[in-house]
Amino acid sequence: MSKYTANNIFNDKISVYVTECLSTNDFLTNLLKRNKINEGTSVRTDYQIKGKGQRDNKWLSEKNSNILFSFLLSPKIKVENQFYLHIVISIAIVKCLKKIGIDCKIKWPNDIYIGEKKIAGILIESFIFQRKVQNSVVGIGLNLNQKRFEGLNATSVYKETLKEFDKIKVIENLKDLISQEYNNLHKIFDKKIIEYRKLLYGLYEMKRFKIGSEIVKAKIIDISVNGELVLNINNKQKSFSHGSLSLLTD
Ligand code: BTN
């Protein structure tokens, strides 16, 4: 079972299991489009009829043998920083395999390799709004117990260790590591924001702002982790993204 640690993004979130589906990424994307689902919602299956790889490739995986798992992240990071997501997920997979006793490498941008053979792949499909990554459907295909790969340059945990592993236990372990790495991603931004906040012009002061065609007096109270300016306007807290208002200095 997953360790019930605070800040684990998968704690108390919906975790769907289906015996088969077209693609767990598509399944989760459909859930996201139809419902309000939270970060950490996940889907796993034993077989994908139309598994997707990067660059429109297919992801082929023997029935019941491997990990086919997708989950939702809502990082709200700038588009320019989205590569950090690839970094944290790749690192989490490498750490998970390390716990099993396997040393692997990340082949840029986010394929996991042992020697010259691929053991896991990641497909991140992001939804961008206002130049920020609002939601990302992250799909992981990890070859676990598959014994043969006809014509594929691939390997599995079984082939490397000659042992079979329990899919659910490995997924729970992955969830913990993903959560830890992902929270670190926010820490990197938090650190920078603390530094930035210390240098912020007008912090805790009343200033005049132009919002649309209106001139408004407000107190600057914070910078959010997403880089939004947080103001107190008439005792109400409101956040503004870059470009949606200007601070008047005259
Ligand atoms: C790649 O290396 O090309 C990425 C492969 C990603 C495969 C996973 S399996 C779970 C999720 N659902 C999909 O259809 N693809 C991803």
Structure commentary:
- It is built from 4 helices and 13 strands.
- With 250 residues, it is α+β, with helices and mostly antiparallel strands.
- It has 2 domains: 15-198, 2-Layer Sandwich (BirA Bifunctional Protein, domain 2); 206-248, SH3 type barrels (Roll).
- Helix 2 (83-100) packs across helix 4 (167-198).
- It is elongated and about 70 Å long.
- Bound molecules: biotin.
- Biotin binds next to helix 1, strand 3, strand 7 and strand 8.
What is the structure about, briefly put?
With 250 residues, the chain is of the alpha+beta class. 26% of the residues lie in helices and 33% in strands.
Helical fraction equals 25-40%
* Rg, alpha carbons: 22 Å
CATH superfamily of the largest domain: Bira Bifunctional Protein, Domain 2
Any low-confidence stretches, pLDDT <50, length ≥5? none
The SS-based structural class is alpha+beta
Distance between the terminal alpha carbons, to the nearest Å?
59 Å
| Tally of individual helices | 4
Class of the largest domain in CATH? Alpha Beta
